[in-house]
Amino acid sequence: MNKVVLMGRLTRDPEVRYTQGENQMAIARYTLAVDRRFNRGNGNDENTADFIPCVAFNKAGEFAEKYFRKGTKIAVSGRIQTGSYTNKDGVKVYTTEVIVDDQEFAESKNNSSNSDGGYGNSNYGNGNYGSGFGGSSQSAAPMAAGDGFMNIPDGIDEELPFN
């Protein structure tokens, strides 16, 4: 079984390109900084990070382009894919990346250190639309209702990805 689940922060804004032709497809590439704790044997845990390249296609790629920004904490599930190519100098280069099946926000916008993140879950891979939504250009922030759900301000319905 080839399945990977990661949680980390984007190291930069996703790079998105579209295929040519009649049926254009979004291809988003981004890198996740994933915390790794290890013990050097002296009883002290030390933290470092792994930088994992990820690729999201179609709707997931479009979602990443619209809502993900540098510093956004996200959770990703998918599969590891390896490959190789020969660069212009004739050197064989080996690649490893995560092909994204599902992706979602891992913290609320209010908890994010980056104000361009999104709210709630946004499970947008494979056409599964979650319950979250991206940031709004309006200055009024949504208020949390007593049941833990965010109230959606009037006038942003057209911005929601699951209308």
What are the salient characteristics of this protein?
single chain; 163 residues; mainly beta; OB fold (Dihydrolipoamide Acetyltransferase, E2P); five-stranded mixed β-barrel; globular
Structure description:
With 163 residues, the protein is mainly beta. The chain has one domain: Nucleic acid-binding proteins (OB fold (Dihydrolipoamide Acetyltransferase, E2P)). The protein is built from one helix and six strands. A hairpin with a 5-residue loop joins strand 3 and strand 4 (45-57). It is globular and about 60 Å long.
Detail the topology: elements first, then pairings.
Blueprint: E1 4-10, E2 15-18, E3 26-39, E4 45-57, H1 58-67, E5 73-86, E6 92-105
Parallel strand pairs: 4-6
Antiparallel strand pairs: 1-3, 1-5, 2-3, 3-4, 5-6
Can you summarize this structure?
With 163 residues, this protein is mostly beta strands.
Q: Please bin the fraction of helical residues.
A: under 10%
CATH topology: OB fold (Dihydrolipoamide Acetyltransferase, E2P)
Describe the oligomeric state of these chains in a short phrase.
single chain
Main sheet makeup: 5 strands, mixed, barrel
Going by CATH, the architecture would be Beta Barrel
Number of domains: 1
3D shape: globular
What's the β-strand tally? 6
Structural class, by secondary structure, is: mainly beta
CATH class descriptor name: Mainly Beta
- Secondary-structure element sequence? EEEEHEE
Work out the radius of gyration.
18 Å
Catalogue the unreliable spans.
114-145
Overall mean pLDDT = 78
Say which CATH homologous superfamily is assigned: Nucleic acid-binding proteins
Distance between the termini: 35 Å
Name the beta content range.
35-45%
Count of individual helical segments: 1
Q: Give the spatial strand order of the biggest sheet.
A: 1-3-4-6-5
